[in-house]
TrEMBL record:
TM regions (residue ranges): 456-476
Keywords: Acetylation, Aspartyl protease, Cell membrane, Cell projection, Cytoplasmic vesicle, Disulfide bond, Endoplasmic reticulum, Endosome, Glycoprotein, Golgi apparatus, Hydrolase, Isopeptide bond, Lipoprotein, Lysosome, Membrane, Palmitate, Phosphoprotein, Protease, Signal, Transmembrane, Transmembrane helix, Ubl conjugation, Zymogen
Protein name (record): Beta-secretase 1
Annotated spans, Disordered: 29-49
Species annotation: Electrophorus electricus
Length: 500
């Protein structure tokens, strides 16, 4: 029977649920030594690598994230006076701090503004639409702190969510969203100061944070309780205990989303051989609020073709590669060795060099719980197609310790101490690799002169007035009733996103 999965895509901008079917695959014997990636023009002379150091004690922040596979990572926050504790989704792909402020079937608790003596109403409303889903709320400010974070209480902008549609997720255990990106994509406009900007302005906390997201397959020495994933958000610094090796940095191209430049993609060391601008069409971002690695259409098709060819010792239906079907194996027999390593090359701070981050199938095959018996392990293919550029979501971040160094306008990657791996392969960060004018791989949105646009607009308006108006009047009445019936019968799909 078809099984409906929990909502597992970004809480903005993607399809949030799909009907999938189970496919049970018998284990076949195969070689346990995968093809090794061929180096790309390197490595060359070692690049200066940086290891994070800080005098701040981050012990209280370690293991402060929880979540469920495919439903995001959340941190506990305290809002108001006296403090009201809420679980808040950590999202580097948006910029609003918003919390549920009214009863909702999927919320166990919500923010009661009337009980906070420090709440201030800003007498303004905010509406945030996503590709599927939306929320609407009232803007205000209140005192906010992170119990397992810096010992600081600050006044921050808060959107009190009073209405929502397909935003909250049943059983996810979070009641709000913490947008950690820049003011440019904040709603209603860039004048609304995001939470992290307020934190840095009102305290001595350095302008950076780092994330260690530990996927569903990793078992810590502590109990996660009802959660299936955990991790750490280090606010104001870098904790060397959370990674091995060195941190490699890529520039933040533009301070809106955390936009970076991808210069090359490989599957098992084989280059996809595409114009590097395709990888960044129309942007590439690092986004903890998205589950999948999402790729532009052409890149997705090329990547799937390469992954399917590399894992051809088993046959999978096309629905698996489209995220519409699960595959299951007897518990403990998943043949990881037949699936390839995926490598992304990111432009380094030296714009004529890059470094390579490589993830394992343990990251991009996402375990799905509650759909089969305890004797089976079932997975969903967590690489999907995107219409809004490349999104390096949780399946990428779960392999690495990711440093959002806002102060120096860069993002760092190091191998995480908690990423899932086997005895044959591990995630890796390697470099440098040399290239020429790698900055040209970025996609630049074509700009049209404003006067030209106005001229075109007036011409088109004149044509419509002269030739189209009579026709419109003739069919108006016929179409009116038809449109009303269509709107009432079909499912509404919101095409808007946070892209401004």
């Amino acid at each position: 029977m078809p099984i409906r999965l929990p909502e597992d895509e970004p809480w903005f901008g993607n399809e949030v649920s799909s009907t999938v079917t189970l496919l049970r695959v018998a284990l076949r014997q195969g070689p346990h030594t995968p093809p090794q990636p061929e180096p790309w023009q390197g490595p060359q002379m070692p690049m200066r690598k940086r290891r994070g150091t800080s005098s701040i004690n981050f012990v209280d922040m370690i293991d402060n994230l929880r979540g469920k596979s495919g439903q995001g990572y959340y941190v506990e926050m305290a809002v108001g006076t006296p403090p009201q504790k809420l679980n808040i989704l950590v999202d580097t792909g948006s910029s609003n701090f918003a919390v549920g402020a009214a009863s909702h079937p999927f919320l166990r608790r919500y923010y009661h503004r009337s009980l906070s003596t420090s709440y201030r109403d800003l007498a303004a409303r905010v509406y945030v639409p996503y590709t599927q889903g939306r929320w609407e709320g009232e803007l205000g400010t209140d005192m906010v702190s992170v119990p397992h974070g810096p010992s600081i209480s600050l006044r921050a902008n808060i959107a009190a969510i009073t209405e929502s549609d397909r935003f909250f997720i049943n059983g996810s255990n979070w009641e709000g969203i913490l947008g950690l990106a820049y003011a440019e994509i904040a709603r209603p406009d860039e004048n609304l100061e995001p939470f992290f900007d307020s934190l840095v302005r009102q305290s001595s906390v350095p302008n950076l944070f780092s994330l260690q997201l530990c996927g569903a397959g990793f078992t810590q020495n502590y109990s996660l309780g009802s959660a299936t994933v955990g991790g750490s958000m280090i606010i104001g610094g870098i904790d060397p205990s959370l990674y091995v090796g060195d941190v490699w940095y890529t520039p933040i191209r533009r301070e809106w989303y955390y936009e970076v430049i991808i210069v090359r993609i490989e599957v098992n060391g084989q280059d996809l051989n595409m114009d590097c601008k395709e990888y960044n069409y129309d942007k590439s971002i690092v986004d903890s609020g998205t589950t999948n690695l999402r790729l532009p259409r052409k890149v997705f098709q090329a990547a799937v073709t390469a992954i399917e060819a590399a894992s051809s010792t088993e046959q999978f239906p096309s629905g698996f590669w489209l995220g519409e079907q699960l595959v299951c194996w007897q518990a403990g027999t998943t043949p990881w060795h037949i699936f390839p390593v995926i490598s992304l090359y990111l432009m380094s701070e030296n714009h004529n060099q890059s470094f390579r981050i490589s993830i394992l199938p343990q990251q991009y095959l996402r375990p799905v719980e509650g759909v089969a018996s305890a004797q089976e392990d079932c997975y969903k293919f967590a690489v999907s197609q995107s219409s809004t550029g490349t999104v390096m979501g949780a399946v990428i971040m779960e392999g690495f310790y990711v440093v959002f160094d806002r102060q120096h306008k860069r993002i760092g990657f190091a191998v995480s101490t908690c990423h899932v791996h086997d005895e044959f392969r591990t995630a890796s960060v390697e470099g440098p690799f040399h290239g020429l004018e790698l900055e040209d791989c970025a996609y630049n949105i074509p700009q049209t002169d404003e006067s030209t646009l106005m001229t075109i607009a007036y011409i088109m308006a004149g044509i419509c007035a002269l030739f189209m108006l009579p026709l419109c009047l003739m069919v108006c009445q016929w179409r009116f009733s038809r449109c009303l019936r269509s709107l009432g019968a079909g499912d509404f799909a919101d095409d808007l996103s946070l892209l401004k």
